[in-house]
Design brief:
Helices cover 63% and strands 4% of the residues. The chain has 25 helices and 5 strands.
Length: 561
């Protein structure tokens, strides 16, 4: 064997050894990355939720939905609710198992903090692993993961207990799996994307427009990009064969998510008596959006495509920096008008398109975070995009990483401006609903100290924080209890001692009890007496003194109080 051959064999062996060594270190790297991000996210969430005793109302409500399943007066799985997608609350339930020994997981909403921290940390490992899969190296993989996860805006949603971190994780995983299939045509990637898309649906309804865009991307790849059918016999290369191939591919992609959607509709019908309960009930987003009819900014966009589109473009632009960097690199490399980039743009605009439709109908609050999902979709695309760079590879990768840094600066600026991101600004400055949370804490403390054995009826839609922060949750008769509707017709007959009511407003009654007895809050009734007021007349506690004299009508309502 010649010296050159010996050297080549030696180099090949050394390369194999280095690859094996790198592969053996990968699980440790991803684990350490996961632990670091989880610890950082949970620390911030703990500071807000426990130290400041301040939690986002939606996050606390999701924890409450999970809490009712395990610890309410009538614990059952259906108590998780049928308006919001249940997966985040199901994960919250795992942490709520510690409630008997660690009550703060419920009373301070730490179960929600742990849930969002878990998905944020998993996203970091997922991103780094995907970059390593494409051979970009440890530095690029870790830099990509940290540049995304430590973006102050993204970091906020990994710590506040909302569902966005979980949804981002699933749509990013879906994009990565889809791109793998797009690139190499191996079915495992599409199978993975089909299941992660279904999990995204169980997390947020925005999975529906995202899934629709993914369908178009799948058809585009099947019919226009993938060329393996060129090897088939001539008679198989006709349009009929192509259409069958596209149909089969879509069935593979959509089966889990379509089944999930039908199952959700069926459960709504069987349990709530309305297959579209999640869409049109008194607790749905459509019902809550009724308040927008009093806001001139939103009413001006109803039926006005131009104004609604301007609002969507204004909000979405803050998340488009990485997409712009990709477009620039492709334009310089002569790769802009390629099918893969067109698919990426389609995925990016899919969820803002839903917001456009909702604004036209007056059913969206247009919170800044509702437009964020194009950002994680683009970031999930970056490992693939880095691998497509043919010229100036190092410069191209640096530009894409720099775009993430630029996004962090831009989104941090947006959070600092209440006119741009009012909900996020209110959270980070603890200026939103802080007084309401203090009042609800005082009500819970009053019940614990003065009415420890009383049976109290309340609507968990508005009183969830009071329920979580009180001891002995089994003494409350709440909306998820199977006797709730009947107990409203005659509280005395069902052993109810007190009824807690929020003050109704022009925008919302705030309670099914207020809807059932529209005059009760203001005027009281013969069968109860005002016992106490809380928070400058924001809540009233009525003591039940006798039977109502009313029974349930066929439609489930009762007479006025």
């Amino acid at each position: 064997m010649s010296a050159s051959t010996t050297a080549a064999v030696g180099e090949e062996r050394m390369t194999g050894i280095r690859s094996l060594s790198a592969a053996s270190k990968r699980p440790l790297l991803l684990t350490l990355l996961f632990l670091f991000v989880f610890a950082a996210e949970f620390a911030l969430g703990f500071y807000y939720a426990y130290t400041l005793n301040y939690t986002h109302s939606d996050a606390m409500s999701r924890v409450a939905n999970a809490f009712y399943v395990l610890y309410s007066r009538d614990p059952h799985l259906a108590a998780i609710g049928f308006v919001w997608n249940p997966l985040p609350s199901l994960v919250d339930m795992l942490f709520l198992l510690a409630y008997p020994v660690l009550p703060s997981v419920a009373t301070f909403g730490l179960a929600g903090v742990a849930m969002s921290s878990l998905f944020a940390a998993a996203t970091a490992s997922l991103l780094a692993a995907e970059a390593l899969r494409y051979g970009h190296g440890v530095f690029v993989g870790v830099s990509l993961a940290l540049a995304y996860c430590l973006n102050p805006f993204i970091f906020l949603f990994g710590s506040n207990g909302l569902s966005d971190a979980a949804f981002n994780f699933f749509i990013m995983w879906t994009v990565m799996a889809f791109v793998r299939w797009f690139r190499d045509e191996k079915p495992f990637g599409l199978v993975t994307a089909s299941f992660t898309l279904a999990l995204a649906f169980w997390t947020r309804y925005e999975a529906v427009p995202f899934g629709a865009a993914l369908c178009v991307g799948t058809l585009t790849a099947t019919l226009l990009v993938h060329r393996r059918m060129a090897e088939k016999p001539l008679e198989q290369r006709r349009w009929k064969y192509q259409s069958f191939r596209g149909e089969g591919t879509l069935v593979l992609l959509l089966s889990p998510v379509v089944y999930s959607g039908l199952l959700w509709i069926l459960w709504n019908y069987l349990i709530m008596g309305n297959p579209l309960y999640f869409l049109n009930s008194e607790y749905s987003n459509v019902a809550q959006a009724g308040i927008l009819a009093m806001d001139s900014e939103f009413t001006s966009m109803v039926g006005s495509p131009k104004l609604a589109l301007l609002k969507v473009l204004e909000k979405t632009a803050y998340y488009a920096v990485p997409l712009g960097a990709i477009a620039l690199l492709r334009m310089l490399g002569g790769r802009l008008l390629r099918w893969d980039f067109i698919v990426l743009v389609l995925l990016f605009v899919s969820i803002p398109a839903l917001q456009l439709l909702m604004l036209l109908k007056g059913t969206s609050f247009a919170w800044f975070r509702y437009f964020m999902y194009g950002f994680p979709i683009t970031v999930a695309w970056l490992p693939y995009e880095m691998g497509q760079i043919r010229k100036w590879k190092k410069a191209g990768r640096l530009l894409l990483l720099a775009s993430l840094v630029g996004s962090a600066v831009l989104l941090t600026y947006a959070m600092s401006k209440p006119e741009i991101a009012p909900d996020e600004h209110a959270y980070i400055t603890t200026s939103g609903h802080l007084e309401e949370q203090r009042i609800e804490q005082s009500i819970a403390d009053y019940f614990n100290e003065n009415l420890p054995d009383a049976v109290i009826m309340m609507d968990s839609y508005s009183a969830y924080r009071i329920i979580l922060k009180s001891g002995r949750p089994e003494r409350y008769v709440i909306t998820s209890d199977r006797i709730f509707r009947k107990a409203m017709s005659d509280p005395h007959a069902y052993g109810i001692d007190y009824i807690l009511l929020p003050r109704p407003t022009k925008e919302s009654d705030g309670s099914a009890i207020n809807v059932t007895y529209p005059n009760l809050y203001a005027n009281g009734a013969e069968w109860c007496e005002l016992y106490r007021e809380f928070g400058d007349n924001r809540w009233r506690l009525y003591k039940v003194t006798g039977p109502t004299g009313y029974g349930l009508h066929k439609k489930g309502g009762v007479g006025d109080g």
